């Protein structure tokens, strides 16, 4: 660059030994540095065993719920073996899974997408349309739907990832909007317009149809959540996951290492899209139908709220956020229509009778005052407690 | 002559700053005397620019103290530090390219009675081009705008980052001249890779490496004459020896 | 031919509405790096309050219409200034969080609008002249289109004059280009932040009043539906560029009207246009290099 070599200084890089380090180990270093925090909990082998035991016990409990007679008044409408509660719990798990797929974007790759609903919708609408029009049995129809979602997310991802940051957010929103418009237009009567569409039961096995079989759908939802957790964990610990996480921290640094953040981000984008579609497929079975809201920006924002509530960057935060939001949404609707709220003066009654107002306001408060969401708050609490106990011991 | 016991204009102690999690300023201590030009030297990527930027809060400071004329400023936001009397000439000029030359200068005026006359005398070219968009100026002219923005006001201290970077020898001399004139009335902390210019202008020097101060000297000239020291800290032979400069795309990032 | 002229003028009118939203979005993004999801709420509130007022003081006169424009601008501007002050400022420089609070605000605001004014559309009534048409080269163009276009052009003119002629305008232009250098000249850019929010909110509020006449109704979803196209317009025009937003607004509005009329696929064409622009020039038509 400089016209006068005489008086310019060579860069530190060129004189250091760093050049010997290959880009590959360098990126691992970056990635490891990035991952230091989440890995902290699992450092000690005993706590790892504990975590697995706990996870397994939780899973068994969840799997056994339809066979048990538990009541949680105020949260679940019926005892756990009855369809009302199973339906709600299944919905919680599906939303947790959807939030988890969104976590891949925002939490792992740092991509603020406003169009994730498009892929969820591709799953729900795709499966319904394929079942209704091609006369395929359920499994092949699901496979075909996933292929459609794969192609869709690859193409849209390739375009949207040409920009980053806020422009990416806008472009992803625009694509989802196209999907939303298409669905509402009801092309060829396939999507049912505003009414939405229900899948033809001919292709669906009997054990997944009807209120009596809700518990099978519940187990299917549990399985879906489990698969999504496994895939997300795997992606996070994969090379692409590390590169994407490093990009999130410092894109420049990764570029300098000669790595191509674009492909890592695209891979994660596509995986997140396909997972969302998978969840969407189970959703359409559980709800025996889907409506345009599932493709709308509102739905993406719902996922965003879940992830932020739970804590951006935390896998379990996304799961907790998804469950909590679903329960809260349900409860708030009941609360909004309750007579206690009705009797309040208008200035309180109007906002409180709008569940979305409460959720929106709650969301703003969390962003402003609770950085890191629920998991962040729990971590801070735990740190404070352990700091206290250390102080006491001394 | 400078009395020995006069208070420094800037005192930096244990300054630390990080960009995106990497510690680019790692416990820097130095003082800038209240008169003359002090050079801040070091190889590419050692944190000279980052040090300057963290002094005025353009990079988030994570520790240490900074005193400007005896007042602590490490928690003061950038614009207030500048208002207390700091002129900043950034490394890559950073003129507002969509604004005209006149607008660039107007924006920089802080004082009620800016030193228009001084600036117009030093950079007559800019008077002629007052209405040209700053983005359409040559590199040298842009550097003049950038310097002029700082010299318009009465300052307690100027922070000047590589003002001769990428300029032709003749323009380098003009810039050096302007700095020499400015230095008669205001102390300057000058980052400069052109060692001839350092020799010409600087009294003392501070040498950085890896985000830390590794050497201080009262006499930049003595330092530059000492082959062992320059070789060790700057990686160049002093005077005359030719060292092919490496392309400076990246610094020691990891 | 006359159909085409009608479509053209209607399209420019739609573009004018997009511009009133996009201009603020683009300035806010350019200066602060914030994508403002609450911008639609500024518009909707401006439209609703103006609608309420016009019913109180008597619908259907020019005076009422002009008063509602002022009210719309004031309501939008104040709402926006409060938003900046209470929600955006505490999150200084944390762009993602700033986007998130605007998302939360837009959810909550739309819910409140539904609570107060119901989910149904409220029909508006402008001056009698609005409902008539004017003959332009054989096309019968509804008059409200002209009003929309003229008011938007005046807003554009006003904003341009402000940016070019005032010190704050200069600060904003400089800040869009390089915000940290503005602070490094000793200028407190935060005042400029509140200002762009206020200007953007006022433009959106005016847009709300005009939209309520253009479409003939106000509903809680009015702002949100315009917002998405305004986002597209700002990306196509180039984030941070007012001129880009103006050009892209008109292009998008006209394209949408014409394709909608002939093929019924206006919204898709717009998104295809967006994809094409991004693939060929990721910074948009007139955007600063990202
Ligand atoms: N935005 C950034 N992101 C990551 N690292 C950065 C960034 N800016 C600077 N750095 C790193 O910080 C270190 C110090 O950079 P700085 O610009 O302060 O060096 P410098 O001494 O001014 O170098 P030069 O002589 O090349 O101007 C370098 O290793 C650089 O790579
Ligand atoms: Mg530098």
Describe the structure in your own words.
The complex is a heterotrimer of chains A (394), B (254) and C (290). In chain A, α2 crosses α9, α4 packs parallel to α8 (214-237) and α4 packs across α13 (315-336). Chain A has 17 helices and no strands. By secondary structure, chain A is an all-alpha fold. Chain B is α/β, with parallel strands linked by helices and 254 residues long. Helix content of chain B is 33%, strand content 24%. In chain B, α6 (139-151) runs parallel beside α7. The longest helix of chain B has 15 residues, at 169-183. The radius of gyration of chain B is 18 Å and the shape is globular. Chain C is mostly helical and 290 residues long. In chain C, the strands form 2 sheets. In chain C, strands 1-4 form a two-stranded antiparallel sheet. Chain C has a two-stranded antiparallel ribbon with strand order 2-3. In chain C, α10 crosses α11. The mean pLDDT of chain C is 90. Classes of the chains: A mainly alpha (394), B alpha/beta (254), C mainly alpha (290). The interface between A and C is large, with 40 and 42 residues. The complex binds adenosine-5'-triphosphate and magnesium ion (MG).
Main attributes of the structure:
A: 394 residues, mainly alpha, 17 helices, disordered N terminus, B: 254 residues, alpha/beta, Rossmann fold, six-stranded mixed sheet, four-stranded antiparallel sheet, 10 helices, globular, binds adenosine-5'-triphosphate, binds magnesium ion
Whole-number count of domains of chain A: 1
CATH class of chain C: Mainly Alpha
Number of strands of chain A: 0
Helix content of chain A: over 70%
> Any low-confidence stretches of chain C, pLDDT <50, length ≥5?
none
Tell me, briefly, the overall form of chain A: globular
What is the residue-averaged pLDDT of chain C?
90
Strand order of the largest sheet of chain C: 1-4
Report a brief summary of the structure.
The complex is a heterotrimer of chains A (394), B (254) and C (290). Chain A has 17 helices and no strands.
């Amino acid at each position: 660059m400089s016209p006068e070599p005489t008086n310019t200084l060579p860069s530190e890089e060129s004189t250091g030994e760093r050049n010997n380090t290959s880009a590959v180990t360098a990126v691992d270093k970056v990635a490891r540095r990035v991952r230091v925090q989440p890995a902290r909990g699992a450092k000690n082998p005993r706590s790892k065993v504990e975590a697995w035991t706990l996870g397994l016990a939780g899973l068994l409990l969840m799997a056994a719920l339809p066979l048990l007679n538990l009541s949680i008044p105020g949260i679940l409408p019926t005892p756990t073996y009855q369809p009302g509660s199973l339906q709600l719990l299944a919905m919680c798990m599906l939303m947790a899974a959807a939030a988890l797929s969104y976590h891949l974007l925002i939490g792992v790759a740092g991509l603020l997408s406003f169009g994730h609903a498009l892929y969820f919708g591709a799953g729900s609408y795709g499966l319904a349309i394929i079942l209704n029009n091609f006369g395929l049995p359920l499994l092949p129809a699901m496979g075909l739907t996933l292929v459609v979602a794969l192609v869709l997310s690859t193409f849209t991802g390739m375009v949207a990832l040409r920009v980053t940051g806020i422009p990416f957010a806008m472009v992803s929103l625009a694509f989802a909007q196209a999907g939303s418009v298409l669905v509402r237009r009801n092309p060829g009567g396939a999507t049912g317009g505003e009414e939405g569409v229900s899948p033809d039961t001919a292709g669906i096995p009997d054990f997944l149809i009807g209120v009596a079989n809700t518990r099978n759908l519940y187990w299917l939802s549990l399985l879906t959540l489990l698969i999504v957790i496994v895939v997300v964990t795997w992606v996070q610990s994969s090379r692409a996951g590390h590169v994407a996480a490093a990009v999130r921290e410092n894109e420049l640094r990764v570029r300098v290492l000669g790595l191509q953040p674009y492909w890592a981000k695209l891979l994660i984008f596509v995986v997140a899209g396909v997972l969302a579609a998978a969840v969407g497929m189970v959703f359409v079975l559980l709800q025996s139908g889907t409506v345009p809201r599932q493709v709308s920006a509102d739905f993406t924002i719902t996922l965003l709220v879940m992830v932020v509530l739970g804590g951006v960057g935390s896998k379990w935060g996304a799961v907790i956020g998804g469950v909590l939001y679903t329960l809260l949404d349900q409860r708030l609707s009941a609360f909004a229509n309750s007579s206690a709220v009705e009797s309040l003066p208008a200035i309180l009654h109007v906002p409180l009778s709008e569940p979305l107002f409460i959720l929106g306001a709650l969301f703003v408060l969390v962003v402003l005052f609770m950085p890191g969401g629920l998991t962040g708050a729990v971590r801070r609490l735990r740190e404070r407690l352990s700091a206290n106990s250390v102080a006491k011991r001394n | 002559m400078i009395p020995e016991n006069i208070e420094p204009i800037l005192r930096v102690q244990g300054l630390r700053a990080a960009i995106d999690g990497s510690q680019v300023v790692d416990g820097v201590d130095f003082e800038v005397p209240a008169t003359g030009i002090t050079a801040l030297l070091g190889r590419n990527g050692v944190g000279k620019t980052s040090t300057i930027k963290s002094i005025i809060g353009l990079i988030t400071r994570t520790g240490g103290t900074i005193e400007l004329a005896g007042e602590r400023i490490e928690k003061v936001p950038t614009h207030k530090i500048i208002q207390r009397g700091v002129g900043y000439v950034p490394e890559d000029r950073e003129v507002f390219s969509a604004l005209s030359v006149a607008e660039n200068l107007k924006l920089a005026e802080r004082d009620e009675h800016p030193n228009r006359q001084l600036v117009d005398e030093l950079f007559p070219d800019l008077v002629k081009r007052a209405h040209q968009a700053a983005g359409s100026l040559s590199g040298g002219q842009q550097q003049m705008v950038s310097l002029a923005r700082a010299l318009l006001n009465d300052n307690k201290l100027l922070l000047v980052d590589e003002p001769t970077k990428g300029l032709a020898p003749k323009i380098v001399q003009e810039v050096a001249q302007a700095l020499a004139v400015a230095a008669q009335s205001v102390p300057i902390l000058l980052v400069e890779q052109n060692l001839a210019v350092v020799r010409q202008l600087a009294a003392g020097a501070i040498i950085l490496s890896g985000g830390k101060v590794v050497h201080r000297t009262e006499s930049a000239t003595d330092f530059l004459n000492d082959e062992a020291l320059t070789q060790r800290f700057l990686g160049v032979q002093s005077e005359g020896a030719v060292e092919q400069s490496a392309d400076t795309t990246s610094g020691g990032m990891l | 031919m006359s159909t085409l002229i009608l479509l053209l003028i209607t399209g420019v009118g739609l573009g004018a509405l997009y511009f009133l939203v996009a201009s603020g979005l683009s300035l806010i993004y350019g200066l602060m790096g914030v994508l403002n999801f609450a911008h639609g709420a500024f518009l909707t509130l401006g439209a609703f309050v103006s609608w309420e007022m016009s019913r109180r003081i008597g619908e259907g006169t020019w005076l009422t219409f002009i008063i509602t424009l002022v009210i719309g601008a004031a309501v939008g501007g104040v709402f926006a200034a409060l938003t900046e002050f209470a929600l955006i400022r505490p999150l200084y420089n944390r762009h993602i969080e700033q986007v998130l609070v605007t998302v939360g605000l837009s959810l909550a605001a739309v819910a409140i609008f539904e609570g107060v004014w119901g989910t149904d559309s409220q029909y508006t009534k402008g001056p009698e002249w609005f409902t008539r048409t004017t003959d332009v080269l054989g096309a019968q163009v509804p008059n409200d289109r002209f009003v929309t276009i003229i008011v938007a052009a005046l807003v554009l003119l006003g904003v341009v004059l402000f940016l070019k002629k005032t010190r704050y305008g200069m600060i904003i232009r400089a800040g869009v280009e390089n915000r940290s250098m503005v602070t490094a000249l000793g200028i407190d850019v935060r005042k400029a932040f509140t200002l762009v929010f206020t200007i953007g909110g006022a433009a959106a509020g005016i847009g709300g009043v005009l939209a309520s006449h253009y479409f003939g109704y106000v509903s809680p979803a009015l702002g949100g539906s315009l917002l998405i196209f305004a986002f597209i317009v700002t990306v196509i025009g180039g984030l941070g560029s007012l001129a880009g937003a103006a050009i892209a607004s008109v292009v998008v509005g006209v394209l949408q009207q014409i394709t909608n009329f002939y093929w019924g696929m206006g919204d898709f064409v717009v998104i295809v246009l967006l994809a094409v622009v991004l693939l060929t020039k990721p910074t948009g038509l007139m955007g600063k290099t990202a």
